[in-house]
Amino acid sequence: MEDLEQTRLRLCDEFATITGSDSAVAQCYLAENDWDMERALNSFFEADMESVFDVEDKEEERNRPLCKRKEVDHPEKTDDAPETKRRMNPQNVHCIDLTEEEPACSSSTSSKGNEDDEGDSKLSLISWNVDGLDTLSLAERARGLCSYLALYTPDVVFLQELIPSYAQYVKKRAVSYLFIEGNEDGYFTGLMLKKSRVKLQKSEIISYATTQMMRNLLCAQVTFLGKELYLMTSHLESCKDQATERMKQLGMVFQKIKEVPDNVTVIFGGDTNLRDSEVAKVGGLPAGVIDVWEELGKQEHCRYTWDTKTNSNKTVPYVSRCRFDRIYLRPAKAGPRMAPEHMALVGMEKLDCGRYTSDHWGIYCTFT
Hints:
Elements: H1 4-19, H2 23-32, H3 37-63, E1 123-129, H4 138-152, E2 156-162, H5 164-173, E3 177-181, E4 188-194, E5 198-207, E6 216-224, E7 227-235, H6 243-259, E8 265-271, H7 276-281, E9 290-291, H8 292-295, E10 306-307, E11 321-322, E12 325-330, E13 340-346, E14 362-367
Parallel strand pairs: 1-2, 7-8
Antiparallel strand pairs: 1-14, 2-4, 3-4, 5-6, 6-7, 8-12, 9-12, 10-11, 13-14
Helix pairs in contact: 1-2, 2-3, 3-5, 4-5
């Protein structure tokens, strides 16, 4: 049985791990909130982040060009725009359709470009842990995410490590998407559906009863151009020493996949924090489920989604290269079978602030 001191030390360690802070900050927030972890986390995120996007919005308001209606097609570049430009409609800055923006990083490759081709029967998807817990350059990194969404115009987006202010920032600019959140407080996952191509039937949040890190499974039953899909995203328990809880959560993901009717295609994506040995320990992938990266030939250039050798957002005294972010597909048994066509990593260009959009690379996939 833990005594009071041990319990509080453990809570401080968990708080520091989740928030990326130190034990002194953890102790301060926990003590102020009667050592209630959820209340302390909410207090930390609200206090630390509200001002970041308030400043961003004020700067955007101040730098907004005053253009007449006839000039909207060719707005002037604002002072704080990235070198490769961001095109915004100055008359509707609070409801920006991402398909109208240009990317902040134009060196990414994409066969889709900025076209919203509703006749295209291919499904496109991005899954990305956006590291909303890292407050450094967060507003510019959020703009970076929006630019990548504008570049690739994915039909479905899975996001992990969102915080309320980050989610609000993206929703404000992503009017062509329906945004579903995995929680309202702390940090959480999100699911975005392109309104013109993906229609939501219903969504649900499945709790992980024994998580110590506020994790859950966000699911959505949708139709894509008339075809039924079941979409799932999650951020499984972090850190090497949480393998038991992480495998338990993975087992819940696999069980949910099995429960979906065979005539419905299932796609799961997210930051799994998995090691290959852990997948093997839970019995491997269920029958009919494929790992998209493996199915496409285990291409080395998109193996590591967490790569401290290349990504400098986190200053760590070691090199860590892991395939934490994964996409699983279970095609429907009836009718045309969905199959993965292409996979690439995104977010590998530095932003003007000198940092990447996230400490993780995002995954971009297309399915036929």
